[in-house]
Amino acid sequence: MVYKIKLKPKAEKELNKIPLPYYDWIVKRIGSLASNPFIGKKLAGEFKGYYSIRVWPYRIIYVIFKKWLIIYIVSISHRQGVYKN
In the chain, which ranges are E strands? Predict the structure, then answer.
């Protein structure tokens, strides 16, 4: 099954601010989520139900909607601030 990937507007803005070559690496990693969304680490606590993948030094935070085959990316930020509101 191939999942459709959607970005929250905030995540899209964050992505557009990321410098090369990180931008290219992140876009490739997001593309790989479509065929295997469970490669990320399950998060706990306040972020229970979310997943995270690392593209050093950035983190991609996303949630998977299995019923609709959608991956919703909520944040793409530097590792130091990604878990802050």
Answer: 4-7, 41-42, 50-55, 58-65, 70-78
